[in-house]
Amino acid sequence: MGWVFLNGKMVREDEAAVTAFDHGFLYGDGLFETVAVHRARPLLLREHLERLLAGAAWLSYQHLPTQDQLAAAAGKVIAANSVTEGALRLLLTRGAGPGTWDPEGYGPPTIIITAASGTPYREEDYHRGWRAVISSFRQDEGSPLCHLKSLNFLHHVLARREARARGAEEALHLNLRGELAEGSISNVFVVRRGELVTPDVASGLLPGITRAVVLDLARKLGLSVQERPVQPQELQGAEEAFLTSSLMGLMPLVAVDDRPVGAGVPGPVTARLRAAYADLVLAGPA
Ligand SMILES: Cc1ncc(COP(=O)(O)O)c(C=O)c1O
Fold first, then answer.
1. pTM to 2 decimal places
2. Which one of 27, 31, 43, 261 is separated from 115 by 20 to 30 angstroms, measured CA to CA?
3. Is the minimum distance from the CB of 152 to ligand 1 under 6 angstroms?
4. Ligand 1 atom 1: the closest Cα is on which residue?
5. 149 lies in the same domain as 98
6. Do residues 151 and 32 make contact, with C-beta atoms less than 8 angstroms apart?
7. What is the mean pLDDT of residues 129-156?
8. Ligand 1 neighbour 139 (Cβ under 6 A)
């Protein structure tokens, strides 16, 4: 039986219940973060906490915990669940209130932190690479909500179902202009003429923590990097492509809508960046 941090207390998993009048539960008024745990350390935790608390401030949540309080609680949850390799999840909602959609009268925020061992990604996924489909669900690049990792995750959930139904592992969202935005759980990169290209934030995407690290690494490795609008057709003309997320790291993307990307196998730039990412993020104190 696992342990959950719920509003300041460690409680048993089967007792970690929230009220039916929580605004997150009722209207998706909440945010979450998924953090990889390696050697019992939450990777890039400060960056995740910064994104979470910046999003909560933007949503005008009151009485927010500090980064240090959340980091201490995260450490407790990892230890209580004896997680060495796995995932940490932090969830923050506007809190409980009268049950109406109006956000007035809700709070303090509900805070839930869980941790689980294991990851859904296997080494053979990285060797073979993932296939994606273009989702029928478009991302509205004009909406500030696409920049938040919010509990309004339904169109990503449904995009994932589209991918599964078509035998692919990921679905890519286009924005309303028809440009590439992001995956349902990932950011997307392409390599074209040796240059690393990824949709800019104004294309309508979650500014991923892994995306930022990869951009930084690529520049340090001397690669030419561009953040700009990307047409979906550019995937076909690309030498390589890959997806990024905190749990997945860098995943080669080898086909989109049944058409191969480049040679249809994981490419050398992806491999180089994957190795650099592993050196930087995964190799920490034992
Ligand atoms: C919609 C979406 N885009 C991008 C990402 C990648 O973000 P990060 O690298 O911060 O995990 C995620 C992660 O779950 C996501 O859900």
1. 0.97
2. 27
3. no
4. 185
5. no
6. yes
7. 97
8. no
Instruction: Determine the distance separating the centroid of ligand 1 and the alpha carbon of 19, expressed in angstroms.
Output: 28
Across residues 211-221, what is the average pLDDT?
97
Strands (E), 125-247: 130-134, 170-174, 180-183, 187-192, 195-198, 225-227, 240-245
pLDDT at 216 over 90: yes
User: What is the Cα–Cα distance from 273 to 193, expressed in whole angstroms?
Assistant: 16
Closest residue to atom 7 of ligand 1, CA basis? 208
pLDDT tens string 235-274:
989 999 999 999 999 999 999 999 999 999 999 999 999 9
Q: Check whether residue 109 and residue 55 sit in a common domain.
A: yes
Whole-number pLDDT of residue 286 = 45
Domain that holds residue 57: 3-117
CB 173 less than 6 A from any atom of ligand 1: no
Nearest C-alpha to atom 2 of ligand 1 is from which residue? 185
Q: For ligand 1, say whether the CB of 245 is within 6 Å of any of its atoms.
A: yes
Q: How many domains does the chain have?
A: 2
Give CA–CA dist 3/253, Å, rounded. 36
Same domain? For 189 and 225 the reply is yes
Mean predicted lDDT score pLDDT of the chain: 96
**Average pLDDT for residues 159-179, to the nearest whole number?**
98
* DSSP label at residue 203: G
Position 283 scores a pLDDT of 80
**Which residue's CA lies nearest to atom 5 of ligand 1?**
186
The answer on 65 and 23 residing in a single domain is: yes
**Domain shared by 136 and 27, yes or no:** no
